[in-house]
Structure formats: structure tokens, C-alpha cells
Specification:
The complex is a heterodimer of chains A (about 130) and B (about 160). Chain A is mainly α. Chain A has five helices and two strands; from the N terminus they run αβααβαα. Chain A has one domain. The model of chain A has no long low-confidence stretch (mean pLDDT about 95). With about 160 residues, chain B is mainly α. Chain B is about 75% helix and about 0% strand. In chain B, helix 1 runs antiparallel to helix 3 and helix 3 packs antiparallel against helix 4. The model of chain B has no long low-confidence stretch (mean pLDDT about 90). Classes of the chains: A mainly alpha (about 130), B mainly alpha (about 160). Chains A and B meet through helix 3 and helix 4 of A and helix 1 and helix 3 of B.
């Protein structure tokens, strides 16, 4: 398997864990259950894992390490995440937040902003996981 | 669904904040994946060429990504809040604008001290021309955002 495939696989795994945790803790719910699957495969796997983690960590020259590019991966993942959360909050309404506070945040907009930035963790962890696979 | 602001100026500023964050990210993607952003030291006049300058430049630039990520994300979050017409836009906008000005001034001082703005070096050098455009853009947008967000704080 290539680095790109490992990145996609790791990100899909992260997506699966995230969605299971969200169900267990009652953090958000989708308008349709199929949207959760699409989110895991498309947003976690292809965009965050494939495009950002795989594209950046695979394309970087030999003079730069993964640690050099990690902040850029975080920034790219978070920017895409913020756009995604914003699009959902203002237009799509594909998922909605429950009444439960999320690490002290109660307003849907605050949750969208915080989770938007947290999306940046996905490509960074996926890339590191993929590069440390024997 | 969250309601968005109806103020056209706020909407335009929100888009500009998000675009600035995105362009910051794009610069670093290009920096790591291509040579487009790198000054073309080989084309400089011999009198201006010092063997250690490319290494100094690389070391200096490689210190920026985490700080630029913080700045870009503050601006993007400010954009999200501003789009919603939320008062927290001012908080993130002021932090983001302050960080943008701080980074721009460090960069400008480095460039001035090392003669990067000299016309004979700028001519035909895509990396340095991009650097100059970024410096001007960061300064002007940083000041604009600072003033606009400050006016929001004052109500």
C-alpha cells in the first residue's frame, strides 16, 4: 500500500471513531443516516486523508520533514473544516448540534467554529500514522 | 440553521478574512511543494550574492508555518463569526489582525535588512515579487481589519 492509501485509511478510521463517539455522547445528529457514511468516506477519507494528508506529506521534498509541514496540514484541514461547518450552519443543515454542551460551548455557532478548527487534527494524525506504519 | 448577517460590508469583510486565511495556507503549500515562492538567488548580481543567504532565508522562513497557521485560522474564525453577525468576530478579528501585522513586520524587517526590496533583485524574480505583494497585502489588510474590528468593539 502507498502512503496515500494509508493516509486515507487512517482518516477513515478516525472518522469512524469520531462518529461513534458522537452517537455515544449525543453531540450531533444527521438529517439522514447516510450523510454520516458520506462524511466519513468523503470528508474524512478523501479530502482530509487523501487530498490534504496524502497530497502534502507525499509531495513534500526530501529536505523537509513531516514535522515541518504539520502546521500547514493542520491549517489546511482546519480551513476546509471551517468552510464545511460554516456551509452546514448557514445553508445545508445536513447535521445539527444537540443541546449538550461541547467542552463548555453551548451555542451552535461556537460549536461549529471549535469543531471546524479541530478538523485540522485529522490530516496531521493521519499523515503521522501513515508514515509510522511499518 | 444559523441566520447570517444582512450587512453587505460585513459579508464582504467576512469573505476577505476567510480568503486571507486560505491564501496564507496556499503560500505554504507552494513553499513546501514548489520553488515558486523562493527568491531566485542565482539571478542576483554577484555583488549582492552571499553564499550563506539562501540557508539564512530557509531557516528564517521555516520558523513561520505554526505562527501563520494561528494567524490564518484566527482570521477564518473571525470570518465565520462576522458572517453570522456575531460579536465574537471582533475578538478573533483583533487577535488575527494583530498577529498578521506582527508577522508582516518581522518579515519586512528581515527583507529590508537583507536588501530583498532592492529593485535590481525584485526585477524578474517571482518569489521576491510575491514576497513584496504579501507584505503590502498583510500590512494593509491587517490595519483595515484592526480598525474595522476596533470600531465594532466601541459599538
Amino acid at each position: 500500500m502507498s502512503i496515500l492509501e494509508y493516509c486515507i485509511g487512517a482518516a477513515i478510521l478516525e472518522g469512524l471513531v469520531t462518529e461513534l463517539l458522537a452517537v455515544a455522547l449525543g453531540l450531533w445528529r444527521y438529517r439522514h443516516p447516510g450523510l454520516a457514511v458520506a462524511n466519513i468516506i468523503l470528508m474524512f477519507g478523501l479530502v482530509q486523508g487523501g487530498l490534504i494528508a496524502g497530497g502534502l506529506s507525499g509531495g513534500v521534498s526530501a529536505t523537509h520533514s513531516l514535522a515541518n509541514i504539520a502546521p500547514v496540514m493542520f491549517m489546511a484541514g482546519a480551513l476546509v473544516g471551517l468552510a464545511y461547518e460554516g456551509l452546514n450552519s448557514f445553508c445545508l443543515n445536513a447535521w445539527s448540534w444537540s443541546e449538550r454542551p461541547l467542552v463548555g460551548l453551548e451555542r451552535p455557532l461556537d460549536k461549529a467554529a471549535a469543531v471546524g478548527v479541530l478538523w485540522g487534527v485529522v490530516p496531521v494524525t493521519a499523515a503521522f500514522a501513515a508514515h509510522f506504519v511499518p | 440553521m444559523i441566520a447570517s448577517t444582512r450587512n453587505a460590508a460585513d459579508r464582504a469583510h467576512a469573505i476577505a478574512l476567510f480568503v486571507t486565511g486560505t491564501l496564507t495556507c496556499l503560500y505554504w503549500v507552494l513553499f513546501f511543494l514548489t520553488d515558486l515562492t523562493r527568491p531566485d538567488f542565482a539571478t542576483w548580481p554577484a555583488s549582492a550574492r552571499t553564499p550563506e543567504l539562501p540557508a539564512i532565508y530557509d531557516a528564517f522562513e521555516s520558523a513561520f508555518p505554526a505562527a501563520d497557521a494561528f494567524t490564518g485560522l484566527c482570521l477564518a474564525v473571525a470570518g465565520l463569526y462576522l458572517w453570522a453577525g456575531d460579536r465574537l468576530a471582533a475578538l478573533f478579528g483583533l487577535v488575527g489582525a494583530g498577529a498578521l501585522l506582527f508577522l508582516a513586520l518581522i518579515d519586512i524587517e528581515f527583507n529590508v535588512l537583507h536588501g530583498f526590496y532592492a529593485p535590481e533583485r525584485l526585477a524578474g524574480d517571482v518569489g521576491l515579487s510575491l514576497e513584496l505583494a504579501i507584505n503590502i497585502g498583510c500590512l494593509s489588510f491587517g490595519v483595515f481589519t484592526l480598525l474595522r474590528m476596533w470600531s465594532k468593539v466601541r459599538g
